[in-house]
Amino acid sequence: MSASPATSIFVTAQDGLRLHVRSYGPRTAAALPIVCLPGLARTGADFDVLATRLASDPEGPRRAIALDSRGRGRSDYDRDPANYSLVVELSDLIAALTALGIARAVFVGTSRGGLLTMLLAVARPTAIAGCVLNDIGPVIDLKGLIRIKSYVGKLPQPASLRDAADILRGLFGSQFPKLNDDDWAAFARRTFKEAGGRIVPDYDVKLATTLEATDLGRPLPVLWKEFDALARVPVMVIRGSNSDILSTATVEAMRTRRTSLDVVDVPDEGHAPLLTGENIIGCIAAFAKACDGGVQH
Questions:
Q1: What's the pLDDT at 3?
Q2: Residue 231: left (phi > 0), alpha (psi -120 to 50), or beta?
Q3: In CATH, what number does 7-153+218-292 get?
Q4: Residue 296: per-residue pLDDT
Q5: Pairing status of strand 128-134 against strand 105-110
Q6: Rounded CA gap, 43 and 22, in Å?
Q7: What is the reported pLDDT for 174?
C-alpha cells in the first residue's frame, strides 16, 4: 500500500483533551470541504481511500478532514468513560470545526458519525452544506445494536495482524462475503494497533460502557426531529444490503418524509459500507459537486 497523503493535525477539545484529525488536500480549495466522521469503535483511517480520492480529484480537488473521536485512534483517551457520549462528542466536533476554520462543509457520517451529523444539524445548521448518512438513520435496528454490543471492547487478543484479520473475518464475514484476504488484512490494520508488544484495538475498550448503559429491553430513542433538521440541504443515505442497523423500512420512512432523498444501496456489504469501491466513491463525489453548486433538495 502506498503511503497516505494525510497530514496529522491535533486540536484541543473544550475540556482540554487532544483530538487527532487527518487532513487531506489543499486548504484553499474552492470546493466545499468534506468532513468524515467514523463509527463508534472506528477511526478516521476508515475514510483514507475516499478522502484521498476526493482531495485529488482532477476536476475539483477539495479539502477532506477525518476525525478520530475521543478515545479512538490517535486522539486522547478520556479518564472518564462517561464522556464517550454523543453530547460530548458533538461539542468535540464543533471545537474541531472551529479550530480548523471550517464554517461550512459536506459531512460524511458512518453510523455514530451520522448520528453526530444529525445532531449538528440542530446545534449548528449553517455548518452543513450537504450530508451523507452511511448506513444510519433516525431509527437504529435493535438486532444490529445487540451484535455491536457483543464485541466492542470484548475482542479476543490476536497473536498477530494475520490473526486479527481472521478474528474480523469471523465476526463480519457474513456481512461482507466478497472481501478477500488483502481486504481483511487492511481491515485489521484499521482496527488494531501495536502497543507494548501486543496487538490491541485502536480504541479505548472502555467505549463498551456507552453500550452497557443501553437498556435493550426498551425502545431506542429516535432522531426524526434531528433528521428533519436536514430539510434544507441535500441528503444521501447509503445502505449496505446486508445491514442489520439500518432497515429498509427506516429508509422508506426517511424517503416518505423526504421525497428527494438520494438512496444508494451497496450490494454484498453490511454495517457499515466501506466506501472504497469505485461506484460508491463516484456517487459521493457527484453528490459533493452538487452541494458545491448549491443544489437544494
A1: 43
A2: alpha
A3: 3.40.50.1820
A4: 43
A5: parallel
A6: 10
A7: 95
CA distances from 74 to 45, 79, 80, 158 (A): 10, 15, 17, 20
Please tell me the predicted confidence (pLDDT) of residue 45.
97
Determine the Cα–Cα distance for residues 155 and 153; give it in Å rounded to an integer: 6
Cell 484553499, residue located: 28
Let me know: does 107 contact 100? Beta carbons within 8 Å.
no
Taking Cα atoms as reference points, which of 53, 62, 56, 52 lies closest to residue 31?
62
**DSSP-derived pairing of the beta strands 64-68 and 18-24:** antiparallel
Nearest to 36 by CA among 104, 95, 106: 106
What are the angstrom distances between the C-alpha of 172 and each of 178, 184, 193, 272, 280? Answer: 11, 10, 19, 10, 20
Residue 120 CB contacts under 8 Å (≥ 6 apart), including other chains: 90, 93, 94, 107, 127, 128
And the C-alpha cell for 216?
435493550
Cell numbers 426498551 correspond to: 218
pLDDT at 294: 62
C-alpha cell belonging to residue 176: 461482507
Please report the pLDDT score of residue 295 as a whole number: 43
In residues, how long is the chain?
297
Count the alpha carbons within 13 Å of 120 in the hemisphere toward its beta carbon.
32
Are the C-beta atoms of 227 and 118 separated by less than 8 Å?
A: yes
Spell out, as residue ranges, where the chain has pLDDT lower than 50. Answer: 1-3, 295-297
Residues of the chain with CATH 3.40.50.1820: 7-153+218-292
Measured from the Cβ of residue 90, the count of other Cβ atoms closer than 10 Å reads 18
200 conformational bin, left if phi > 0, alpha if psi -120 to 50, beta if neither: beta
Q: Which three cell numbers stand for residue 270?
A: 453490511
Quote the radius of gyration of the chain (alpha carbons, Å): 18
